[in-house]
Amino acid sequence: MAPVISKLYLYPIKSCKAIEVTEAQLSKYGLRHDRTFLVVDPATNKQRTMRELPLMTLITPKIVGESLEITADGKKVTVPLTPDVTKYEKRIVDVWKEQLESADLGDEAAQFFTEYLGVPSRLVFKSPNHVRPVIEHAPGEKEIGFQPETGFADNFPILALSEESINDVNTHLETPVTVLNFRPNLVISGVSKPWEEDTWCTVDIRGITYYFVCRCTRCDMPNVNPETGIKDKLQPQKTLQSVRRVDKGKKAKFFACVGINVVPSSHSGEIRVGDALDVKEIFQGERMRTGEPGWSTVEVGA
Question: Is the bond into 236 cis (omega within 30 degrees of 0)?
């Protein structure tokens, strides 16, 4: 039996609660409506994330027609799901030292996030006029006919992770975690062994090629319990550092790796729970996240 998509998740607001869906549309950023909104510090314009503010994981977005309803602590604010950026003040925000153009969604949304988080905050939407290219290990014009890009995700359009790999993680932990500790978009079941997805290069889903480009390195964000917003001081990061430092590439060798970053070969199409994954290519040699630009299916220097 081929592996299948067992769950699909969108994260409309970076670092806030996931929305589980049964189907999703592709867009130029990966999955439509995924990480197109961001909370920022208005003084520095740097992103606010659950690394520093773990209670962000309890902020709940809900797609209602063409609106995004956002609730937290019994309060609600509503913003357009796809704002017309020409109607809002432009704000240049900082995501990992990248300067990205966005639209500031106004004082009502800012007050909602400021009051809940207890620190000055603004909600912004990624401007479609600003291209944030994905270059590291990624296919480009030669392979897929365009330069891939992403919204406010850390580095890549899509993250995939198998249930079997999470089950393996939990064999090393006293307190189990779930896939939501790692915030994947695609959850896969039916792989032949844990971490098999790390070896995949190209995978066909509904006739669209998905490039599995490199492992996802991990900070302490998985220490945040997605159901309570409580951040553990040590786990699971401490254990992961001992059992999942498996990538010798210069951009990964000091980090635990859980999940694999994915670039789709199309800006349109859909993906559904239950879809089969037809693995077309397996990586040849030892896979290493070196940070090099461009796509390769074979080992390169560390």
Answer: yes
* 3-state DSSP of 162-183: EHHHHHHHHCCCCCCCCHHHCC
Q: Please report the pLDDT score of residue 1 as a whole number.
A: 84
Query: What gap in Å lies between CA 253 and CA 248, rounded to an integer?
Result: 5
What is the C-alpha to C-alpha distance for residues 179 and 11, in angstroms, rounded to an integer?
14
Q: Which of 150, 131, 147, 151 is nearest to 139 (CA)?
A: 147
Residue 302, pLDDT above cutoff 50: no
What number of other Cβ atoms are within 10 A of residue 268's Cβ?
A: 11
Beta strands in the chain (DSSP E): 4-10, 19-21, 23-27, 30-31, 37-40, 60-64, 67-72, 75-80, 89-95, 98-104, 122-126, 158-162, 186-189, 200-205, 208-218, 256-264, 270-272, 278-282
> If DSSP codes are grouped into helix, strand and coil, which group holds residue 34?
coil
Amino acid (1-letter code) at residue 54: P
Q: Phi first, then psi: give them for residue 110, nearest 5 degrees.
A: -60, -45
Cut 0.90: pTM above it = yes
Q: Are 33 and 12 in contact (CB under 8 A)?
A: yes
Among 84, 106, 97, 94, smallest CA distance to 48 is for 94
Tokens of residue 158, six digits: 């899509």
Report the chain's mean pLDDT, rounded to a whole number: 97
79, two tokens: 């913003």
What six digits make up the tokens of 295?
């796509």
